[in-house]
Amino acid sequence: MVRHLFLCGLMLVHSGILIAQRPATSWDVLQQLRPGDRIQVTDQKTKVWTGTFDNVSERVITLTGKSRASSIERVDVLRVKIRDTSNRSRRIILGTVIGAGIGLTIGLVGNAPLRNEGNGCSACVAGLTAGLGGLGAVLGMRPRYRTLYLAPKPN
Which of 1, 73, 117, 138 has the fewest Cβ atoms nearer than 10 Å? Predict the structure, then answer.
């Protein structure tokens, strides 16, 4: 059980480090995008466009959504994110392991007083383990977007 808590704590610290990384504030970073990349563009009014990247110039970024192409002026862009497809299987496995570990811990701790009285419910422990493991796997499957560009804050 201590090992599970240590791993959960380690994952929380690791995710905090990843969140702390700052995206680029230079528009030039968008030159690394390739046509067809899945992106999300958020404007200054927090409206979000999702689609495939088409083109970027000094003043405009263009993407194609479900029904049409959209061009967003550079001055209106707050954030550009790119879909991160790397390590998807690792995220699924990690989510399953963490969810199952949490389910097992909750089940064993919650079942301990009942087990001491002869009324233990091992099916409940197994159900919690499988249920939270499945939830972790589903959360790991969700597509992730990595922030590529973040507009500099006005002075």
Answer: 117
Residue 34 CB burial class (10 angstroms; 0-12, 13-18, ≥19) = exposed
Q: Is the pTM of this model over 0.70?
A: no
Largest CA distance in the chain: 72
Q: What is the pLDDT of residue 77?
A: 92
Question: CATH assignment of 23-85+143-150?
Answer: 2.30.30.520
Spatial strand order of the sheet with 38-43 comes to: 69-73, 60-64, 48-56, 38-43, 77-84, 144-150
Residue 138 CA to residue 102 CA, distance in Å, equals 15
pLDDT digit string, tens, across residues 73-123: 999 999 999 988 777 788 889 889 999 999 888 888 887 777 777 777 888
Question: Which of 10-24, 26-40, 44-58 is the least confident region?
Answer: 10-24
Please give the distance of CA 66 from its chain centroid, rounded to a whole number. Answer: 22
* Annotated domain spans of the chain: 23-85+143-150, 87-141
